[in-house]
Amino acid sequence: MPDNSNDDDLFTASSSLDQPLAARLRPKNIRHYYGQQHLLAEGSALRQSMLSGDIHSMILWGPPGTGKTTLAKMLANHSNAQLETLSAVSAGIKDVRQVVDTCRLRQTQGIKTILFIDEVHRFNKSQQDVLLPHIEMGLFTFIGATTENPSFELNNALLSRVRVYCLKSLTESDLISVLCRALEDEIDGLGLTDISIDDDALSIIALAANGDARIALGILERAFISAAALKKNKIEQVLLTESIGHQLSRFDNKGDHFYDLISALHKSVRGSDTDASLYWFARMLEGGCDPLYIARRLVRMASEDIGNADPRALRVTLDAWDVQSRLGSPEGELAMAQAIIYLSVAPKSNASYLAFNEAKMLARQYTAEPVPIKLRNAPTELMESLDHGADYRYPHDYLHAYVPNEKYLPNAIANAHLYKPSDHGFEAKIRQRLDHLRELDLAFTKDND
Which residues pair with 145 in a beta bridge? Predict the structure, then answer.
């Protein structure tokens, strides 16, 4: 990425090689900050803000290893301000108040402060509220970093005082650039220049890192250290595999990546894409998701997106859930994969889902409509004397087991029409049945006119 800065100090000073490679390689200059071109391209607002030193309060939101902390420190380095850093994992209100006292002292000396809080989503509401008046008054410029969706994890009051920037996972090309920079500047410093690594190996590392620069650099460092210990002069496939180990999918049981993955699975099933459905299912399992959670979601898919177009889909998903509960892995996972394929290729209809949602809306709107007298229960003589159940017509006493033009809804919504079956799968037969019943209603009306 082109750079308008004259700062030639590319990396933070490192006092010890005991630091992980990712820490030693953290750039201070935008020239060697890879990725996030959508935020830092020439002429972008954030880039101009950084290069001018005019930094505003912000939230940096993105997956791990995408450069949130690095970007925050670069912003501080380009501004005429002192940097204070806290981690919400270990810090609390007391630590924030100590920083506030420091900022007030600096303010009297005409010195500005940037407060960077990593993992800011770990602050609870009260802890976040402590920041508000000081951001409002400009006591410090606030930069928060989070892997979680700010809309859910941060107070609206805090969000109203900052600008949110969304960082993206690094591409394979970005990660290879990071690795090449490490080979040029840091591996040489370890005295490991006699060990070689080819482009294919770098690509394997970049793919295994899953968009995370920290993971990529960790794999590279382990590979070189292992090669040196084994007196190898090249990073071979076996050594690289050992260095990579078992890299879990980017996934957690609470955050956005979890919900993004289950959303991708659900939408792939809805879109009848069996390959994508199986891929997202496998991604969730590889990430450590509880298979029973997925089993419950499959049951929802069967009702929400297939419904009566193929009523067997519900039974298939319940059977898969039962296999997972009884046998666990791998039999249960295979049964769920079979169910996912069935759901993907099944005819689709959301008519039941839409009808139920509309019924709930009516139930909320018409909360006190009386049950028609003819539909009421009459278990006692008193209720019979009040005509409960009177004039009720028993459908089995009629042709086609159907009472033409009978109304079962309250009078206020007697003509509501909620369920509109599709023409897909078995639901097409349901539609034909309902059309036939309406024809009976029309015939009865004509005969009685």
Answer: 60
Residue 8 lies inside a defined structural domain of this protein: no
Same domain, 211 and 93: no
**Last residue within a domain, chosen from 217, 244, 271:** 244
**162 and 176: one domain?**
no
Max CA distance (Å), the chain: 101
Among 323, 318, 322, which residue's Cα sits nearest to residue 303?
Answer: 318
Give the model's pLDDT for residue 197: 86
Q: How far apart are alpha carbons 133 and 130 in whole angstroms?
A: 7
Nearest to 118 by CA among 190, 187, 70: 70
How many whole angstroms separate alpha carbon 407 and alpha carbon 104?
A: 74
Assess whether 74 and 55 both reside in one domain: yes
Contacts of 112 (CB under 8 A, 6+ apart): 79, 80, 81, 82, 106, 140, 141
87 plus 131 within the same structural domain:
yes
Could you tell me which residues are beta bridge partners of residue 234?
A: 196
Q: Judge if 207 and 157 occupy the same domain.
A: no
- Give the pLDDT score at 2: 38
pLDDT of residue 252: 56
pLDDT digits (tens, 9 = 90+) for 295-331: 999 999 999 999 999 999 999 999 999 999 999 889 9
Confidence band (pLDDT; 50, 70, 90) for 251? low
Calpha distance 96→122 (Å, rounded): 14
Which bin fits 445, alpha (ψ -120 to 50), beta or left (φ > 0)?
alpha
C-alpha to C-alpha distance for 250 and 13, rounded to whole angstroms: 30
- Do 226 and 150 belong to one domain? no
What the block records as the tokens of 427 is 């639901």
* More confident of the two residues 16 and 208: 208
Q: What are phi and psi of 285, to 5 degrees?
A: -65, -45
In a shared domain, residues 53 and 118: yes
Q: Which domain covers residue 56, as residue numbers?
A: 36-166
Query: Are 135 and 190 in a shared domain?
Result: no
Sign of CA pseudo-dihedral 402, 408, 414, 416: negative
Q: In the predicted model, is pLDDT for residue 221 greater than 70? A: yes
Query: What pLDDT score does 294 carry?
Result: 94
Final residue of a structural domain among 166, 181, 201: 166
pLDDT at 233 over 90: no
CATH assignment at residue 180: 1.10.8.60
Of all helices (H) and strands (E), which one includes residue 48? helix 45-52
10 — pLDDT class (breaks 50, 70, 90)? very low
**How much is the average pLDDT of 189-210?**
80
- pTM for the whole thing? 0.64
